[in-house]
Amino acid sequence: MHLLHALASRTALPLLAYRAAMPTKRVPIMQIRSLVVVAPSQNRYSAAMEQAIDLATAVDATVTVAILGSAGSDGKRVDIRARQKSLATDLLDRGVRINAEVVVLKPGVNALVRLAKACTADLLILDPALVQADAGADFALMLMQQAPCPVLSAQEQPIRSHGKLFVAAPASCEDLDQIALNTHVVAVAKAISQARKARMHLFTVYDQAALLRHSKHYSLAEIPRYETLVAEVRGFAAQLGIPAVHHHLIVGACAHTLCAYANRCGYDLVVIASPLNARQRETLSYLMNHLQCSLLVVNANASDDRVANLRSPGLFDSLVSPA
Question: What's the 3-state SS for the chain?
């Protein structure tokens, strides 16, 4: 039976049993040692390069720079050799450790995925020019789902402090059962917030209309109450060591509500899980098109079986009342 029905059941085990079943060990902070940044081929300001330099300097990480394509905006061929030398010199002059020379890749998701794997990258940073056009947005979305590490879509304006992190994990109450993935998202966000000395806030959306649409019985009686989910989200956040004042359950339509809060409250970075279904892809696509700040997308970490264990078998089955 689905988690929503389990939460709604009055005969389900008490919340104390749910919390006891969750891991008691606080999530470790991910180490950021290697960055891959996709720089523009043209010699211009790049938010991706600036954020890569700032983060690498803060955590003493090694940076690998990749350039996609070679055509300039005026249609003339860019001198790639000169651009490679310029980027490498700029990084070295600013005290950043670089991995070999600047790499030139043919445009495509597979090439970047292979490069990230070869560099054992902990973070891949995209230049905003890659996600502005429709084709670029499709490219970025595919990369966010296939990359072996989190992908940061840098905002065009220079944002260097990341003083306020908006972490959507789980983004929707419908995703509360993805415990391992949500925990991994928080671990990555903690690494960024620690490096930048930032304040991290955890947000989840209570979208009753979506819950009703996705309920098998299409009945309000099957929808978990707001108060019930407040307790569940509070328990999840407590297990991750997040203070009560730093996690929030907000009401509304998931994508629109997350975006509106982040934009209105002036957050520097939104952190969210890579989509696993069509509903989550729609949310991510909306954020990519409407957010006014950078967006960090964290995929499931296959290296420690998080993909296989997105749904803990014993935990939520124990919450289901007998038929």
Answer: CCHHHHHHCCCCCCHHHHHHHCCCCCCCCCCCCEEEEEECCCCCCCHHHHHHHHHHHHHCCEEEEEEECCECCCCCECCHHHHHHHHHHHHHHCCCEECCCCEEECCCHHHHHHHHHHCCCCEEEECHHHHCCHHHHHHHHHHHHHCCCCEEECCCCCCCCCCEEEEECCCEHHHCCEHHHHHHHHHHHHHHHHHHCCEEEEEEEECHHHHHHHCCCCCHHHCCCHHHHHHHHHHHHHHCCCCHHHEEEEECCHHHHHHHHHHHCCCCEEEEECCCCHHHHHHHHHHHHHCCCEEEEECCCHHHCCCCCCECHHHHHCCCCCC
pLDDT at 220 over 70: no
The neighbour count for residue 300, using CB atoms within 10 Å, is: 21
Q: What is the pTM of this model?
A: 0.80
Q: What pLDDT, on a 0 to 100 scale, did the predictor assign at position 219?
A: 60
CB-based contacts of 16-22 (< 8 A; 24+ apart in sequence): 17/318, 17/319, 18/232, 18/235, 18/315, 18/319, 19/235, 19/238, 19/239, 21/314, 21/315, 21/318, 22/179, 22/235, 22/236, 22/239, 22/315
Q: How far apart are CA 135 and CA 279, in angstroms?
A: 21
Q: Write the pLDDT tens digit of every residue in 110-153.
A: 999 999 999 999 999 998 777 655 456 788 888 888 999 999 99
Whole-number pLDDT of residue 127: 86
pLDDT at 44: 79
